[in-house]
Amino acid sequence: MEASPPALEAASSANLNTNRERIGVLVLAGAALLAMIGMAIGVLVGPLQITLSEFSAVALSWVGIGDAESVSRVKTGVIENIRAPRSVLGALVGASLGIAGAAMQGFFRNPLADPGLIGVSTGGALAAVAVIVLGGTLLSPILVFLGAFALPIIAFLGSLITVAIIYRVSVFDGRVIVATMLLAGVAANAVAASGIGYFTFLADDAQLRDLTFWTLGSLGGAIWDRVLPAALLMLISIAGLLTLARPLNCLLLGEADAETLGIDVEATKRKAAFLTALGVGAATAVCGVINFVGLVVPHVVRLITGPDHRFVLPGSALLGAALVLFSDLVARVSVAPAELPLGVVTAAIGAPFFFWLLIRDKRTSGLG
After folding, report:
1. Is residue 4 part of a domain?
2. Domains in the chain: how many in total?
3. What pLDDT, on the 0 to 100 scale, is given for residue 137?
4. Residue 33 belongs to a domain
5. The domain that contains 95 carries what CATH number?
6. How far is 243 from 157, CA to CA, in rounded Å?
7. pLDDT tens digit string along 182-231?
8. Could you tell me if residue 10 is inside a domain?
């Protein structure tokens, strides 16, 4: 007996879902492997070459298994105090930016959205630039009180305040209007860019160098004292955004259908905005502004796995970690002994991909 058309359609749909799940699992495994390789290479490669056996001896000594006495103190110090925190920070920053971009694209239902749309990065940048330029004058009491943590703390607060303002402007009658949030984000970014330009005009030569490197992003200031507090915030953000896979899948159908399926749409919007601000704000506070990771990575994952956020969210986190780690490697070794700003490398990767997306969308829509 031949199968009826509905049965064939059901079987075809089941096979398609199974194939996509297999592809999704493979993408997660591959991205995780890339991230681990990136972390390892980041520790081994640099002006001071470190062998895998030396790194393994030091790493095992951290858990009381191995003995690091065979490794020189210089290499042990470089591994423990410079390269290990830098690799950990790079992985967490990339994961935070990648998963936040995936959440924003699902939130706005737009594959070209990224965390910068709600002003997280530029708000933090404006606050940091103000600290750099005004630190010796108007803000000196605050800097004395906060000490070495002044810049990351104030940058983080700048990100949160910016998002809070945008969120408040976007709420009408107890509901978040996504289009209004998008427009408010554009306005906030313009205001922040204007403020950054003003402080750039006021800055002296030494401040200009600090300002330039901070606004272009770098992992060069990674030390455990800075990495660990930011890591906690980024891990909370990543874990929280992973729980939004089902609500974001339902939002792909539209807000009305999502509510019919039992999703609290407004709570999902608030949670997505807050967790994005938390993770991206913490990342911006410790390494400056890094563009295009939140745009490029989720789109690549979505092109391979499909729109299912069960794979898009964790895949974007893992692939984002890998992208930042390998970009940082390029930044460190391409102009050694100097170091390129990390944002320059990610922009060099992301901008051509963005152009490709525009051309592809134009051809797909029949405009090309």
Report:
1. no
2. 1
3. 65
4. yes
5. 1.10.3470.10
6. 25
7. 888 889 989 998 999 998 898 888 888 878 777 888 888 788 888 888 89
8. no
